[in-house]
Amino acid sequence: MPTSSHPTRRRFLQSSLAASASLLPQLSQAADPKKKTPLAPMSNPVCVFNKPLQHLSYEEQASLVAEMGFAGIEGTVRTGGHVEAKNVERDLPKQIAALQKHNIEMTLMTTKVNNIDDPLNRTVIKTAAKLGVKRFRMGAYRYDLKKPIPEQVESFRHTYRELIRYCADLDIQPLYQNHAGAKYFGATLWDLHLLMKGENKEQTGICFDIRHATAESGLSWPLLFQLTKPHFKFVYCKDFDWDKKTKRATNVPLGTGMVDYPKFFSMLRKINYSDPISLHMEYKDHRDPKLLQESIAAVRQDHQTLLKFMGKA
User: Fold this and answer.
1) In whole angstroms, how far apart are CA 18 and each of 11, 31, 237?
2) Secondary structure class of 269 (helix, strand, coil)
């Protein structure tokens, strides 16, 4: 064999070794199927439901929420709220000013407003809209279980449409939350889907509460997610477990209960959900001022858990 073939053989061996080396990372990953490429962090604005922080002044709360790293608050403007509905014209501007001072916003206003017949409801909406609030959570509709359900759904739909039209002229969106409970309209989400059907998505939508959806539907919550996802404008994050003694749902720290958060956030990623997320800490009694510091610590803990689910911690 001619000696000129040896360099050719060496080049062949060298190129083969180089090709094998380039495949090593791929082979290593194939050998370890659990090893996954980290997902990009979700960039959704995150606000905090301010119910457990209502014992703070507007300034104290705004400063704390900003220090915690939230984009804003879901602020209660209702009877017993941080802003009493009857005092909305006087107090909501003070709260908004405190938030703006710390470069955060009222991402969502939580109210009892679910119709425009009540003059106070109209005052709450108009005051908020004038101050730049763009979205508010409505008060729930409730069924009378002694009356036919379909007729009540139609009645709610009429009232709801009047509210949407009124709010559209003021450039503010009424959003409806699904809430667990035998008498709550929207608890099953099928009725809420019927309410939203045909409505302008730029004028209204759903605050999708995965805690309440799981409590009401158990294993079928992904079906309800798929049913109502076109109307998501907000997502609520909190958790619960079943109390065996009382046979009731009991709120627990985020990520420790029945809600399948890894699956939930995987589904949010798949639909490219980009609207706000609201953190609800409801396992401390917000009515007891002695629990304020415990509530603050719990909010911090749940916030870190939420950031992990979002791939940001």
Assistant:
1) 11, 20, 50
2) helix
In the chain, which stretches have pLDDT less than 50?
A: 1-5, 12-13, 17-30
User: Which pLDDT score is estimated for 33?
Assistant: 53
Task: Please give the model's pTM, rounded to 2 decimal places.
Answer: 0.87
CA 17 to chain centroid: 52
Coil vs helix vs strand at 39: coil
Pairing between strand 239-243 and 248-252? antiparallel
Single-letter amino acid, residue 148: P
* Phi and psi, residue 245, nearest 5°: -75, -50
Distances (CA, A) of 117 to 6, 185, 197: 95, 19, 23
Residue 25 has what pLDDT?
A: 46
CA angle at residue 47 from 44 to 50, to 5 degrees? 165
Structure-block tokens of residue 250: 């009991």
> Where along the chain do its domains lie?
46-309
User: What's the rounded Cα separation, in Å, for the pair 253 and 256?
Assistant: 6
Run of H or E residues at 92: helix 88-101
Which is nearest to 253 in space by CA: 201, 310, 299?
299
Q: Which CATH architecture has domain 46-309?
A: Alpha-Beta Barrel (3.20)
Position 129 scores a pLDDT of: 98
Give the CA distances from residue 245 to residues 240, 249, 275, 279, in Å, rounded to whole numbers and listed in that order: 15, 11, 38, 28
